[in-house]
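Would you mind giving me a polypeptide sequence along with per-residue structure tokens?
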Amino acid sequence: MQTHKNRVAVVSGAAKGIGQELAVQLAQRGALLALIDIADLSETSRLIQREGGKAVSIKGDISQEEDWEAAGDLVRNEYGRCDILVNNAGIFPNVHIDDMNFQDWKRTLEINLDSVFLSAKVFVPMMRNNKWGGNPPDK
């Protein structure tokens, strides 16, 4: 089993489902967690603590730049760095395209695409400073 002992992992969409399971698995491997979700994260935090792990929770809308900036500030203040970024959160409007309006489409793109850009802008510089994770291929 790969170890992530004392690596700091940020996981979006960690309140339930795949994101919750990823966060718990990372905690089992020794990672320190920062969880971000618009939904309540108390169950995920409890599961992580049960595994002997540590997590800070950020209630935020991942499509909003200021929420990612707040998450970055919390991670920097709590852990001093970020090593692993898991962009897990996403939505799928379960409607036929004939019934979808443009606002719903734009919201889907904000959550599924824009959030990846916004999180990378905040956390990749931290990862580069650590010289672990976040490094682009050689130019």
Observations:
- The chain has four helices and four strands.
- Strands lie at 8-12, 32-37, 55-59, 84-86.
- Residues 8-130 form a domain with the Rossmann fold fold (CATH 3.40.50.720).
- The helical segments are 17-28, 42-50, 65-78, 102-130.
